[in-house]
Amino acid sequence: MNEADRLREAMRVTESTDQGMLDLAAVVREGRRLRRRRRLAGAGAAGLVLAVAVAVPVALRPGGPPPQRPADAMTTASVAAPTATPTAGPTTGTPVSPGGTDRKPTGAVVSSGIRYGAQERVFYFVPVDVPSVPRVKIGLVAGRRDTDGRLTPDVLINDVAGRDRHEGFHEIGYDQQGERQFVPPVPTFGYFVGPAMRIVGTVDGRQVNAELARWSADPRVVIFWFDPTTLAPGVRLDGILAYDKRGARL
To answer: Would you list the domain boundaries of the chain?
Structure first.
């Protein structure tokens, strides 16, 4: 029975058998009751739609917080005149022509243990001058050291925004040679500021531990690099995390 049928029924029930008159008050009451039911039904439908709309944004992402991403793009210029460029992707670093810098290392040169015949892969900081970023005064070089101690720089990375000692990860350098390798491949490297005792990179779903060394000029600065036998030079990291001595994430 629809609402029109119910209204007609109310009219028939309220008819006077002796006078043929309608009980108008009863008809009005029934009509009000039907309208009220329609309004309540409409409100209920609106409430259902609202509940669905609110439920969507609060859906939780499985798996907990995502791993920290490597530092965003901060491609550097040459050692002689670094310039800032907009953020655009993972840092690759700037190749440095052999003999292209006469800047002496700041602090001790870090030995990696990676050798190329008579040469060894080393990492060291050098002073840089980025006019638009006055609080960036150091850059990290991946170079080679001969048996006589002569240094040959290969890749330089430095901040192009903020300051060079803010806590956390800074630039990450990658080998850019591809198939044309004029110098020995450069391992993925970078530096972290803070009490890191372990740095772990993620690539293709697997974790890779980095080698660490503290900078002699500032023990808060941790230089890290990935052994090329566990992470091929040039392969981009999907994520990177640092942990303190208690195993807590920094």
So the answer is: 3-55, 94-243
* Rounded CA separation 169/91 (Å): 12
Q: How far is CA 188 from CA 79, 131, 138, 161, in A?
A: 19, 27, 19, 21
Mapping DSSP to helix (H, G, I), strand (E, B) and coil, where does residue 25 land? helix
Nearest to 143 by CA among 177, 96, 108: 96
Q: Are 214 and 204 in contact (CB under 8 A)?
A: no
Contacts of 63 (CB under 8 A, 6+ apart): none
Sign of the Cα pseudo-torsion (52, 56, 58, 63, in order): positive
Q: To which residue do tokens 């944004």 refer?
A: 57
Summarised one tens digit per residue, pLDDT across range 53-107 is: 222 222 323 333 333 334 333 333 323 233 333 222 345 556 554 444 567 999 9
The token pair at 150 is 């002569």
**How many other CB atoms sit within 10 Å of the CB of residue 36?**
10
